[in-house]
Known about the structure:
By secondary structure, this protein is of the alpha/beta class. It has three domains: 2-60, CATH 2.40.50.140; 85-113 and 253-420, Vaccinia Virus protein VP39 (Rossmann fold); 119-238, CATH 2.40.50.1070. Helices cover 24% and strands 31% of the residues. The chain has ten helices and 23 strands. The strands form four sheets. Strands 7-22-23-21-20-17-18-19 form an eight-stranded mixed beta sheet, sandwiched between helices. Strands 10-9-8-11-12-13-14 form a seven-stranded mixed beta sheet. A hairpin with a 2-residue loop joins strand 11 and strand 12. The radius of gyration is 23 Å and the shape is flat. The N and C termini lie far apart (53 Å). The model has no long low-confidence stretch (mean pLDDT 96).
Amino acid sequence: MVRIDRIGSEGDGIARLPDGTPLYLPLTLPGESVTARPLQSRGDGWHAFAETIADASPARVEPPCRHFGRCGGCVLQHWRDAEYRTWKSGLLSYALRQAGFTPPDPLDFVPGLPGERRRIDFAVRRTAGRIILGLHEQRSAEVIDLTDCLVLHPTLMALMEPLRALLQGLRAVRREASVVINLLDSGPDMLLRTDAALTLEDRTALTNFARDHGLPRVSQVVGNDVPETIGLLRPPTMALSGIAVRPPPAAFLQATAEGERAIVDGVLRGMPGKITSKTRIAELYAGCGTLTFALAGVVRVAAFEGDAATHAALKQAINQGGVAGRIEAFQRDLARQPLSAKELGAFAAVVLDPPHAGAAAQIGQIAASGIPTVVYVSCNPATLSRDARVLNGAGYKLVAATAIDQFLWSARLESVCVFRRG
């Protein structure tokens, strides 16, 4: 019997053996006593299974989803909202303390709600002649056959059964595939990744599916090839701060509309106090322009993005949106060619929204530049902490931090942190 001390960064309960070895136990809560069966080594300890739970936490609730416990999409539905939200905001507080900063108390927190998720990446398996469509089991390659999902936007939920029927008849899906859908303003934009080439009948079926279910575009790719548009019924568009953007298939977009608004608001609040319409800022990892067009309403923006297709979508939106005088867009791989401290010296602030791996190659140049304001948008508290430690060493102070729960009931957390120097 072991006692759960806390919930770790991946959403597992953490207990310790008598010798101090940590046990990581999914689906447990702080204060619970459990009989644990170690399953496999994990880092400095063991991933384990809770065979029985004694003294269940008063914060334990009945999970609302019948797939919970197997599906790897949600890991904390069994925790009462108040405790769950305190833990979620605590991920950001802990990351900042580890970087040497004192986080605000209380920390700004934007909660997530069911039915908000507008992006999904389904796994597909063909087994014994039938299609399994869903998400992976926790720490497994097995796929849970989902019939419903509480976090998904209703428009995407409504596609699940028709999509399953479509995939059943596609010859291009031999053993496995994946489906990424972004819910744009113009409708669900779908990219199908298959393990074989499409037949003529497959192409017809995909085009008919798009027409029947209101998809503006359906695309397909085999392996790592460039996606091919199979059916284009109307422009696939998303308005970002009033500017129409045509994202490439499976483009990175913020997972919820409310999360996007919170991120944009946090970034704009982090702008330097003394700015004019001629003030220039650098935006790194700009994507399709989620922050770019909002920033262009108050400052001039030099936007840097490494992915060619995403950069092209950003450039097109700038030109067609009539904001070319406010925004310059550059294609640049910041992992291989980060902006130098000298280049950054021309700007009043830098805004960065790096991928999950953070901005290890870029953050040192930002710190060395002495740029007065750094606004860091993060999707990973661990890499935020690593990068923020560099800013701390260069004399930056934390002036604002907001935790944003775009991924409800998961261990993932978005945040916006504002650092100033001088």
